[in-house]
Design brief:
By secondary structure, the protein is an alpha+beta fold. It has two domains: about 70 residues, Zinc finger, CHC2-typedomain (DNA Primase, Chain A); about 55 residues. Helices cover about 45% and strands about 15% of the residues. It has five helices and four strands. The protein has a four-stranded antiparallel β-sheet. Strand 1 and strand 2 form a beta hairpin. The radius of gyration is 16 Å and the shape is globular. The two termini are about 25 Å apart.
Length: about 140
């Protein structure tokens, strides 16, 4: 499971940099974001609650497992081969990006008209922006 999929299950998500977010921890009554989420270069998802919640409690709260924090791979695969396996066909990538851009356009249009968007829509907007940014960084 990717970091983007993990943050899609969290509330109060804020992007704090490339591959980094904070959110309200689902394992305790969190009023302010205390859960750090980071996607490592090798695809691992790292979770850290500043309030001290165990990672297993966080995973239970979002219906995930320890295995979901790691990309499946073979020990014999070279890093270059693992990178090639995760490549997406350009037509599929453009289709996915088109979908994410549509979400950004629709929600930003609502905000430009002065409409309030829900917390879920705001979180989805952050996910869309993150996916677009990640796609851009993969092109470089």
């Amino acid at each position: 499971m990717s970091a983007v999929e993990i943050i899609g299950r969290l509330d109060g998500v804020k992007n704090t940099g490339h591959g980094r977010w904070i959110a309200r921890c689902p394992a305790h009554n969190d009023r302010r974001p205390s859960l750090g989420v980071r996607e490592a270069d090798d695809g691992r998802v790292l979770l850290y609650c500043r309030a001290g919640c165990e990672t297993s409690a966080i995973l239970d709260s979002i219906g995930a497992t320890w295995a979901d924090l790691f990309l499946p791979r073979s020990r014999t695969d070279s890093p270059a081969r693992r990178r090639r396996e995760h490549l997406v066909h350009p037509a599929d990538a453009l289709s996915l990006l088109s979908h994410e851009v549509s979400i950004v356009v629709l929600l930003s249009g609502d905000m430009a008209r002065g409409l309030c968007i829900s917390e879920a829509d705001r979180a989805r907007l952050i996910v869309a922006a993150s996916r677009i940014a990640k796609a851009a960084s993969l092109c470089n």
